Structure formats: structure tokens, C-alpha cells
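Q: What would this chain look like folded?
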Amino acid sequence: MKIAFYGSSLVSAYWNGAATYYRGLLRALAARGYDITFYEPDVYDRQQNRDIDPPEWCKVVVYEGTIDALKVAAEEAAKADIVVKASGVGFEDDLLLDQVLRNAAAHAVTIFWDVDAPATLAEIKSAPDHPLRRALHTLDLVLTYGGGAPVIDAYRGLGARECIPVYNALDPETHHPVPADRRFQADLGFLGNRLPDRETRVDQFFLEPAGRMPGQLFLLGGSGWQGKPMTPNINFIGHVSTRDHNAFNVSPKAVLNISRASMAENGFSPATRVFEAAGAGACLITDYWEGIDLFVKPDEEVLVARDGQDVVDILAGLGEVKAREIGSRALARVLAEHTYDHRAEAVDALFRSRVRARMEAAE
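A: My prediction, written as C-alpha cells:
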């Protein structure tokens, strides 16, 4: 079966946190026999900051960030059995949704794949005429990379036929244990871009604890933090290529996950970095969100902080041996239950049942 997938970028993780999710899940689906083409616009300097070449398991079509080029790319949806429009493509998202659905073949299963459901729902709930909200009843499926029951209920309440979470997971070929790298040595590392709905939480969970622990070294990676006031014990290293994520995760004593505000409030939304860190065997400290224990077990496979003081207390009592034990248990858990092969098995069954139902209805 052919999949036409319209997303932000497969080849560049630059200002594109969904990249590893797309790569892990689509590679696992390709291994199950799907013929996948990923369509992405040339915007936000992503093509100038590629961190992988187009993979052999997926054709990548890069189109110019113009209306005409978007329409030409959208016409290709007519060739697919499954047509996916992801959220947050970054260029004329509403128009792209309209054009993709307009061009999809009559037999095709049409899907909106939301990689930031809490934020998307907040936007469309208050806008009855929002193009996505108007299109929900025409789509076969809404898939999300998190959110649990609150997101499912919200989408159904707005008219979606069905909403199913497909959670982030681990791609063991990409994220795995590696030797420590002295470039990333620290007591606590945090990797994340500067985003408006996460910055306050970064202040609370990372920058303020660093200020209260001058004897410990903190490592900050990610784009956009230039000019942000920081204490001398914070080593800011800027954008970190995905090639270095494993080393970034394993070299500090512990690494920190800080959810975006909307995802923390909604819960059931594990970030990709949760699985990347666990896959590398890192000791992860995460901010609290409901549903953590569905993925990793608090106190045994992950350490949970409800505020900055918790981060300080955890670090103060965390030795190297304990950190390694937590990382080892987390790695074992995600390999056993939370790889993209696990996710793709469920998605494959879903896709095949929907395609079969459409074909039977057409007979």
C-alpha cells in the first residue's frame, strides 16, 4: 500500500521536534511493506540543516515554500491508498489540508496526524470556522502522538469520527547506549529548543535549580537560548545534532525532560526525548505529568520532579551507581514494550482494516 505523508520534515530535526517520531514510525511501517513518500516544504532553513540523507525506506519530496509548489505536491495525494496530513507542517497548513483532501482518491483512507494535540485543540475549540474543525467529519481518522482519553474525547466532541493515540517510542537503531563524551559531561543535561509555552517551565525546572546548586555543572543544548540570563555553572552549547543525542544523553549523570505546558497539563503525552534518553540507558528526570507510569515506572525507571525544588533534592541525593541502575532499567522497559516496531504493529493493523473496509464498501 502507498502512503502519502505531508509533514514538517523527515530529513531535518532543525526546529522540528517531530522528526524522530516520523523517522521511527515510518521506518517501522516501511519494514512491513508500505511504500511511503514524505512531502515537506523548504522552510525555516531545515534543508540547510539536514541531519540525515533521504533514507532508502522512504522517498522524500521537498517542495518550495510557495502556494504553487504546495498545490503541485498536494496533487500527488491522488496516487496513495493512505493520505496523511500532519499538524505543524509550517507552511500554509490550512491550505495544505484542503488541497490534500481535495486530491485524495475516493478509495483512500484520509488521516490528520496531530503531533501537538493539546495545542491544536486549544486553537480549534475557540474557532468554529477553523478549517481543520470543519474537515474533521470528513476525515477517516485522527491520530495523535499522545494525549490519552482527554484528547480522544475532545476530538470526538468536535466531530472527529475516531481519534487514536500512537505514542512516541524508541527506535533502537537510532537511540542506543554509546560511550560517554567529555563534551557533554555534566551533573544534569537538558536538550530542548526555546519555545514560548515551555520557557517558564525551563526556568522553573532547570535554570533556577542551577542557580541554587553552584557546585554542580548543568548542560543546556538547543536552539534559541542565546541572550537568556544563565548562571556560570550552565554550559550552553546551542543546537545539538541528532547524531550527538546518544552521547548527550549518556554523558551527564542525569538528563532532564521538560514538557511543554499544554502537554504537561493534559498528561499522557511522553515526549520523544523520554524514549531517546531511556534508549541510550540514561538516568532520566522528568517533570510530572499524568500517565508517566504507563511508559516508565517512577523511582525505578525514571525520577519524577513536580517543581524545581524536587530537581535540587533529586540531584543532591543521586549517585553515579544509582543513576546507572535507573538508566539500565529504563532501557530494558522500553525495549520490551515501547519501540516503534510495537507502535507500527498496531498502526499496520489499523490501516489494513480501514483500507479493507473502504474497498468492501466500494464493491
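The chain has two domains: 2-169+340-362, 182-337.
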